[in-house]
Amino acid sequence: MRMGLFNRFKKILIVEDDAHLRHAVVDKLKSSGYRVMEAEDGNSGLNMAIKERPDLILLDLMLPKMDGLSLLSELRRDDWGKDVPVIVITILNATDERRAKAKELNVVEYIDKSKYQLDEIIQKVKKAL
């Protein structure tokens, strides 16, 4: 209970176009006590991040309207956005050049979308915060 009280002050933004995954993660984060915002494309995700300034962002790399790397590059140009922790949720393999670029942009952690488990996501969120 004590951790849940602490979590309610932490805002998390999830930017993910897969509605099933996004809703599952949102539900799990909310039940763990976090305040959660969601976006289904890169443009709305970037706008929401800059406006709301979440404590952590969960970001898919393959998004409509603006891909995750473009979002991350724009975010890192912002005074606030240069330091916000970002966890990438991706299906891309470790050798993919987009994943290497994300690492250059100070991604905290990667979660393999093809093998994700909700408890793993929560553990990585707690670690990053």
Detailed description of the structure:
Strands 2-1-3-4-5 form a 5-stranded parallel sheet. It has one domain: Rossmann fold, CATH 3.40.50. The two termini are 18 Å apart. By secondary structure, the protein is α/β, with parallel strands linked by helices. The model has no long low-confidence stretch (mean pLDDT 86). The chain has helices at 2-7, 19-31, 42-52, 68-77, 97-104, 118-128, and strands at 11-15, 35-39, 56-60, 86-90, 109-112.
Summarize the SSE layout with pairings.
Elements: H1 2-7, E1 11-15, H2 19-31, E2 35-39, H3 42-52, E3 56-60, H4 68-77, E4 86-90, H5 97-104, E5 109-112, H6 118-128
Parallel strand pairs: 1-2, 1-3, 3-4, 4-5
Helix pairs in contact: 2-6, 3-4
- Low-confidence spans: pLDDT under 50, at least 5 residues? none
**Category from helices, strands and their pairing:** alpha/beta
What is the helix fraction of residues, given as a range? Answer: 40-55%
Q: What is the total tally of β strands?
A: 5
Approximate shape: globular
Number of helices: 6
Q: What is the ordering of alpha helices and beta strands? A: HEHEHEHEHEH
CATH architecture: 3-Layer(aba) Sandwich
The CA-CA distance between the termini, in Å, is: 18 Å
Number of domains: 1
- Proportion of residues in extended strands: 15-25%
Using only C-alpha atoms, the radius of gyration works out to: 13 Å
The average pLDDT score comes to: 86
Q: In this structure, how is the largest beta sheet organized?
A: 5 strands, parallel
Strand numbers in spatial order across the main sheet: 2-1-3-4-5
CATH topology: Rossmann fold
CATH C-level: Alpha Beta
CATH homologous superfamily?
Response regulator
